[in-house]
Amino acid sequence: MNILSRLPRLMSLILGCWLITSAATAQPQDTREYFGDTARFSALPELTDLDKALAEAKRTKKPVFVNCYAAWARPCVAMDQYVLSHTDFAQWISDRFVCLRMMMNTDAGKAFAEKYDVRTYATFLVLDADGNIRHRIKGGSMIPEFKEKLTASLDPRTSLAGTQAKIATGKYKRQDLFNYVTALRTAGMDSLFNVYTREYAKALDYADFAKEGHWMLVGLFRSADSDFYRFFVSHRDLFLKHNDVRKVENKFESFHTGRLLSQACGDSPYDSAAVAACRADIRAFGMSDTAATAILCDIADLRGHKQYAALFRYMEQKGRYLDKYYRVHGMIDLSFRFNDLSSADEQALIAYLTKAVEHEKNTRMGRQLDTFLVSLQTKGKGITFFEGSFAEAQAKAKAEGKKIFMDCYTSWCGPCRMMAANIFTKQDVGECYNARFVCVKYDMEQGEGIQLAKRFQVRAFPTILILDADGKVLDTIVGSCSGDELIRRAKEACK
Question: Same domain, yes or no, for 292 and 323?
């Protein structure tokens, strides 16, 4: 499949991203090359002053369409390039709205954002001539969907303000409630959406959830133990009649992925009966043997039965199919930290990880896998690292009368990997440190490492800390160093 055939889907993904405002966000000077070609800018006849726009709205008796624009936000730029640049659509908008572009990096833009609670980009508002919000659109979309959302703003029966007013009366029909939850979804008002969606759903039969326009309600059901799930599995054709096959199959997988992934990664005990039940549903629903659920079942079974060599061979053959689902491939790879591997199984794991590192070359995941691989290849030859929390390391150090050696690293740090591969693995370094220290290592950008980096003010990598059992810093080594230097500093700290 070439890139042009995938462009509409790619753009839908890009435009659907909502970027949170941050003072620390980089603000490129030129946004024209974001998408690999020369940008086409908005064709709308746009004002840039709110007061002037409201005055024009009163004169023309049109609502105001507000583009809350941040030059650094890719969805904003993409909307200009792929949606608002189309002259026919721009004409359609300008015939119905006064168009206003609020530059959110200006003082006026910041005040506007505060007044109208604009926190994500892309965001679009429709205001009446008095400046009241008539409709809110959170996130971008391609022309057909975006036109539909704007059209909804023109009718009080479907606009956010109109549906809010109807619901507030307490006298509304089922269609009114549906229009309201649709407007809430468009606005990204998740809390209210969840409340009123549940109210709307109470009046529905399970078959109603399959109908056009109701797919957003399917997300209410999250458990494979629900009655709806059993209906869903046994009525696949009914849901496919009104919905895209990808949506339907992804929903099936969402019922199972969390529970199966937990077993596949060894985070929860192996439940053979639950895995078998899931397999039966996979067959009943007509899912492929390369679906994420099917692969996770296989991995859970192999791991649960401790068939490790077979597990690594299986991952090499089918693990790649998991890449498109929740990034679980890497999560599973990094979970292969077994304490009961035979020598042959360990060699099989090393062989598998070597290929996985090559496959993930120059990625964050690849660097994490490489660190894991190095630790396997050098096991028992150098420093032995305690795998536990910092509090547990402190308790162990106090109990054994030792100090603490902490390797503060990141997955992307080349010198960190060099130290792990070439220095910490030296036999003389291992003998020195294992005898004197409880040795630990933490990724400063993951898990407990984030808090430890703040506590010990670690700002460069690698950083090596020598601490007493109470956590007092005795020595700090910033950057890489030789094995001899590491040994010298250890002996000095322990005098």
Answer: yes
